[in-house]
Amino acid sequence: MPIRKKPLSRDTIIAIAATVTSVCALIVAVYQTKLSREQQLNSVWPYLITYEAIDEHQKSSLMVANYGIGPAIIDSVRLVYKGKSYRLPTQVVSEISKQHNRGEYGMPWSHTGLGKGFVIPQGQVFTWITVNDSSDNAIFRAETPQIKSSIYYHSIYGEHWHSVLNDGSEMVVPD
Q: Where are the transmembrane segments (predicted)?
């Protein structure tokens, strides 16, 4: 004897349609939230560049600039000079001074402290290291290609990057 199926009632059809509509609305809401988060992260994207600048008096400086969108918050800085790692630029300039018989503090220099927690605002360009005497500056310029630096930083949303100088490329690479 064949089994006869009951047709679906109008209430059952409405309930199924409401359930499918709710599931679709949930999927759209989750997708919209994902897109909003991506947009939020991309709206704050610091981009640090470290480079050597030479002014009209042939004074060489190492510069740091944030050409991105939003502030860059420094996590750490690493400097390497002739294969040896240094934590501070003052240590590198002192080492160059010693190697060129200027004494440990022989080169008149200035620097901006760049350490954990330092914030570089969007559009900010500042002098990181400068040797102020013209003869010492020539020595510093000659040694600059041997100074390698990595500045590790993050955005206000916690995305991490690092900027490099003299490692064979001059690009900012996401971590």
A: 12-31
